[in-house]
């Protein structure tokens, strides 16, 4: 399994909003793009996915931008990555019933299930709030993932 730029940038975008929207001040994609050194056009595509899923909401107008719809502790890394990446399973047979007719004879499926459980165990228990905390503890105010 490899996380694409879409998934990585979605996570950075959400974390940037969490870090920079204190006191209910919306964050502009243009500002996120500058801070994160990511194409604004690409971030617009990603924010549209997050907005449609209800992870963020837009505020219109000259002082507009985006805010999280929930507190950072309500968003897990797994939620954000699954939204942008789809399945995080290391192999298709783990998530797709009937994908392989050898499941009952395949010993490697044990390995793939263990790997899948380990991945989910991490991404489903790390929240944006955790990332915010790690940011302040380890990197000061110079935020970069």
What are the salient characteristics of this protein?
145 residues, 7 helices, two-stranded antiparallel sheet, mainly alpha, elongated
Which structural category fits the helices and strands? mainly alpha
H and E order? HHHEEHHHH
- Please, what is the oligomeric state? single chain
Amount of beta strand:
5-15%
Average pLDDT level: 91
> How many DSSP E strands?
2
Total of helices: 7
Helix content: 40-55%
Shape: elongated
Description:
With 145 residues, the protein is mainly alpha-helical. It has helices at 5-20, 29-36, 40-52, 77-85, 92-95, 108-123, 128-138; strands at 56-59, 65-68. A two-stranded antiparallel sheet has the order 1-2. Strand 1 (56-59) and strand 2 form a beta hairpin. Helix 1 (5-20) crosses helix 7 and helix 2 (29-36) crosses helix 3. It is elongated and about 60 Å long.
What is the structure about, briefly put?
The protein has 145 residues and is mostly helical.
Reconstruct the topology from this structure.
Elements: H1 5-20, H2 29-36, H3 40-52, E1 56-59, E2 65-68, H4 77-85, H5 92-95, H6 108-123, H7 128-138
Helix pairs in contact: 1-3, 1-4, 1-7, 2-3
């Amino acid at each position: 399994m490899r996380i694409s730029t879409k998934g990585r940038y979605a996570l950075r975008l959400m974390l940037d909003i969490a870090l920079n929207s204190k006191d209910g001040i919306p964050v502009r994609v243009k500002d996120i793009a500058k801070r994160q050194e990511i194409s604004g056009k690409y971030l617009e595509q990603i924010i549209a996915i997050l907005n449609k899923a209800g992870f963020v909401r837009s505020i219109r107008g000259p002082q507009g931008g985006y805010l999280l719809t929930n507190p950072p502790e309500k968003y897990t890394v797994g939620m954000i990555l699954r939204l942008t990446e789809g399945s995080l399973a290391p192999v298709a047979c783990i998530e797709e019933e009937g994908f392989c007719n050898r499941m009952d004879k395949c010993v490697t499926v044990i390995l793939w299930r263990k790997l899948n459980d380990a991945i989910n165990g991490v991404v489903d228990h790390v929240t944006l709030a955790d990332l915010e905390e790690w940011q302040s503890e380890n990197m000061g105010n110079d935020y970069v993932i």
